[in-house]
Design goal:
This protein is α/β, with parallel strands linked by helices. 33% of the residues lie in helices and 20% in strands. The structure holds S-adenosyl-L-homocysteine. S-adenosyl-L-homocysteine binds next to helix 5, strand 8 and strand 10.
């Protein structure tokens, strides 16, 4: 084997939320296989590379995972620096393990470069710490979405147990998420935040309660969105917040 495959986290969207290590490897890259949420300016760093989209967004056509695995291995046979560029952190909800397993089986050297994940980018938008002394020492990153043929998990149990929960790939399931959590005992008044396009200029923050989650989700515009749950979010209501003033006043009345 000639080359090495770098699984790189591109961060949540903003091109300057990329690690220096990632930028340095991209500059040396011969070929880059990238996901659909990767910013064009991030890709532009790989000026000498062939850039190949293998994007997956739920509900849209995707390049089959096995095919991606194979292309990474084939590329490493002919190139020195092969990059697999993924949104956020590559090791969270990115199917990286399937790629890592395939690379290991094929005897291809690889290295992982972490990135800023959507949950922490969203917390940054809110100006709210996911952990907080006396209030939150248990944070869960969860998705209710299962791939075809994958067994379903008890995502709701994790949300119920955690002090703060962040749901990935959940905006389209907001109604079912809200109904299940309330049925299983979570208070309808639990503070909720939706953050769409965290770190990008078109970012959007919606604040409310668990009971209001379905209505809030209808206000999103199809960008990548995380849902956050927990008492720590009350801090977003009392501090200066990007949410429209009317919404904040409503929330303060109810808090
Ligand atoms: N590996 C990625 C997650 C991939 S799953 C990471 O670590 O962030 C894709 C999901 O991530 C989206 O459905 C959405 O829930 C979330 N996401 C990605 N980018 C986002 C962004 N800029 N703002 C809000 N959510 C985002």
């Amino acid at each position: 084997m000639k080359g090495r495959v770098y699984l790189i986290g591109a961060g949540p969207g903003a091109p300057d939320l990329l690690t220096l290590r990632a930028a340095e490897i991209l500059k040396r890259a011969d070929v880059v296989f990238y996901d659909s949420l990767v910013h064009p300016q991030t890709l532009a760093l790989a000026g000498n590379a062939t850039r190949i989209p293998v994007g997956k967004r739920s509900g849209r056509r995707s390049t089959a995972q096995k095919f991606i695995n194979k292309r990474l291995i084939d590329a490493a046979r002919v190139h020195a620096v092969v990059v697999r560029l993924k949104g956020g952190d590559p090791l969270l909800f990115g199917r990286a393990q399937e790629e890592i397993d395939a690379l290991r089986r094929a005897g291809v050297e690889f290295e992982v470069v972490p990135g800023v994940t959507a949950a922490t980018a969203a917390a940054a938008e809110l100006g709210v710490s996911l952990t907080r002394r006396g209030l939150s020492r248990h944070v869960a990153f969860v998705t209710p979405r299962a791939a075809d043929g994958e067994r379903s998990n008890d995502w709701a149990a994790s949300v119920l147990a955690a002090d703060t929960a962040v749901i990935y790939m959940g905006a389209g399931l907001a109604e079912a998420i809200s109904a299940e959590l309330i049925e299983r005992g979570k208070l309808g008044t639990t503070p909720v935040a939706l953050v769409e396009n965290a770190s990008l200029p078109e970012r959007r923050v919606l604040l409310g309660t668990l009971a209001e989650l379905p209505a809030l989700a209808l206000k999103t515009e199809g960008g990548p969105t995380v849902l956050l749950f927990g008492e720590v979010l009350k801090a977003a209501l009392t501090l200066a917040s990007p949410a429209p003033a009317g919404e904040i006043e409503d929330l303060l009345k109810r808090a």
